[in-house]
Write a structure and sequence with these properties.
Elements: E1 2-7, E2 13-19, H1 21-24, H2 30-44, H3 103-119, E3 123-126, H4 136-145, E4 151-155, H5 160-166, E5 172-176, H6 182-187, E6 190-194, H7 195-205
Parallel strand pairs: 1-3, 3-6, 4-5, 4-6
Antiparallel strand pairs: 1-2
Helix pairs in contact: 2-3, 4-5
Length: about 210
């Protein structure tokens, strides 16, 4: 079984944690990573873009000029899509862009992403990330000690002090282990787990 080093807040090794081979030796399947990222981004879309058709645009009830005899093209309304200020033809309307992909595909994509991070030596496990109170200064000190410029930090949502301490640091994002997704993993260079979150997530992914 593979093992991952566990570091303290100063970046020094303190112990090791088991890394299941069925997860971290999983082959990197780029097509699954692609599908998972596209699915995540589509599900994040609000779908509120909206335009007005000719029947929804205000005005245009009167025929602008008579049908024949003026030398101009026929016109029945000033709110035709051909006119400035007119309606929009085939414009966007509010819609739901979300869709689902098979759970197995989503799980395997996450395994691929984790295996890639471990291979690239971008996966870090920290003994604990407990702050007595929310302090961005302390969080910045920790990030600098670990030499992190872009990182996804994974812990439990109940660790409010960690979330509040990290949220103002550029390039750093904190998520609950149960909400970990492929997009966030690939969107950050480093992947940092607390030991507790790592063990919980390994159980969840089995």
């Amino acid at each position: 079984m593979l093992k991952v080093q566990v570091l303290d807040n100063n970046g020094k090794r303190v112990s090791e944690v088991k890394a299941p081979e069925d997860i971290f030796s999983f082959p990197v399947k780029e097509h699954l990573l692609y599908e998972a990222v596209v699915n995540y981004r589509a599900n994040q879309r609000r779908g509120t873009a909206s335009t007005k058709t000719r029947k929804e645009v205000r005005g245009g009830g009167r025929k602008p000029w008579r049908q024949k005899g003026t030398g101009r093209a026929r016109a029945g309304s000033t709110r035709s899509p051909l006119w400035k200020g007119g309606g929009v033809t085939f414009g966007p309307k509010p819609r739901d862009y979300s869709y689902s992909i098979p759970k197995t595909a989503k799980r395997n994509a996450l395994k691929s992403a984790l295996a890639m991070k471990l291979t690239d030596k971008q996966l870090i496990v920290i003994e604990a990330l407990d702050f007595k109170e929310p302090k961005t200064k302390e969080a910045a000190k920790l990030v600098n000690a670990l030499n992190l410029k872009s990182a996804l930090i994974v812990d439990h949502h109940k660790n409010r002090n960690l979330i509040l301490s990290m949220r103002n640091l550029p390039g750093i994002k904190t998520v609950d282990y149960a909400q970990l997704n492929v997009y966030d993993v690939l969107n950050h260079r480093g992947l940092v787990f607390t030991k507790r979150a790592f063990e919980l997530f390994m159980e969840k992914l089995k």
